[in-house]
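User:
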Amino acid sequence: MRINKFISETGYCSRREADKLVDSGRVTINGEKAQLGSQAEQGDDVRIDGKRIGVQRQHVYIALNKPVGITSTTELHVKGNIVDYVGHAERIFPIGRLDKDSEGLILLTNDGDVVNPILRSEGKHEKEYIVTVDRPATDLFLKGMSEGVRILGSMTLPCKVTRMGDRMFRIILTEGKNRQIRRMCQAFGYEVRKLKRIRIMNIHLGDLQTGKWRDLTAEEKRELFTELDYVPSEPK
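Assistant: Predicted structure:
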């Protein structure tokens, strides 16, 4: 199999990140420096930065209620990184991001192949948030948010926005631009005071306490993989 798939199946990182590791010369196969597209099979001596990696024995999919202040990165030198915070026995990494100053649901896994199907923009997978802003949210503001906002040089997609209070609303996005909700609010002169993600596709935060995590249920995984048209590779 291609080296990026081999690395992702160990749970080390996604295929995209594996390509970056290969391109930077940090990967070897049986003592030879790997190239993009190199092949590796079970039993080969594959190393990253000189450390041998093996094939993961089982896939892990977990939901975390991320607190404010935790960074969605696998860079272990970053204080408050999400990997150290969870402290899972397997080598896991986050699927996508949730800003350091935001809280709520984020998924983590050691299955590198599931990342792209979830994050690809053409999938238009729903993510739901509860947002609190710094002043009363007018009907005009909420309507403008739902119709799309020009940020980062392009219009955001239309989205569902529902008032929940004087300064609070629910928003469902089907894309994931950098700090999208905060930038959308800023375009109307609002500042986000609190942002909490409560759902990713069929996975709900529910009553999971802040800072706690749980494994996805068999039913959640079945529904998720069906919607993604994704079949996990068999654990080695």
